[in-house]
Amino acid sequence: xxxxxxxxxxxxxxxxxxxxxxLLIMGLGMQLIxxxxxxxxxxxxxxxxxxxxxxxxAGLSQSFASFPQPNMMWTFLRYRLGMKIPTAYSLGDMAxxxxxxxxxxxxAQAHVVxxxxxxxxxxxxAIAGPTRALSLTSIMSSSGARxxxxxxxxxxxxxxxxxxxxxxxxxxxxxxKFFQLIGSTRxxxxxxxxxxxxxxxxxxxxxxxxxxxxxxxxxxxxxxxxELARISCPTLVIHGRDDPLVPLxxxxxxxxxxxxxxxxxxxxxxxxxxxxxxxxxxPLMLSHFERSSAARTQAEAA
Length: 302
Known about the structure:
With 302 residues, the protein is α/β, with parallel strands linked by helices. The protein contains eleven helices and eight strands.
């Protein structure tokens, strides 16, 4: 369904129910269907109200095509030189979108979970709406600190490739190769399943220019690292030891900067949510939600 949030139209999936809400925020260029069905179903079966949405400029949510397509090479140079990066919007705007989704659904508070760029947005949600976040879970994400390691060379080259235009099969092949490159090692899903996932995503929506605009928002969010100390909700940082896109030190730095944050490192996990990864992530998340709720109950009773 479509809701109006933060002044724009966003596509939302809501499992409904009266349980505590879990807001899932997906990553760069990804859509709400990027959250594995097994993860969503397990959360719902555990009694949670699961809310997913397409970020702006992705999926079926509002596109910002009226803004010029960015020159990524020039932008990358500006980033390396520490220059200001012009953007169509900020990660702060995207965090307000997420809070707007909660408002549109009448949800006062939620456990906020983000993956990759979604983790960065989730961090911004916890900063901007401290009374709205029951807990924060930041998965395979980063603090945004400038001196942290970046993607491996092969991954960086693949990210700079021009997106395929007008050829759906070629675009699917390109996406499959990229996700094989950044995905988990011994926990990976079979390539046939990956192809099914990429086909579903690119059939539903394809907006490579939107992905580039989101990438600029990430690069321009230079001050988030110092603001993480303001996060007051219970925080769990989950990261793969083998992540070739957002290396492990990025997750370690995030956990170090957020007061009281717990860090869980998963061996064999790359930059994806393969079934084997989800099997290890889910117990961590559910325990985190339960601890967070118990701590809040104790604090309110004191």
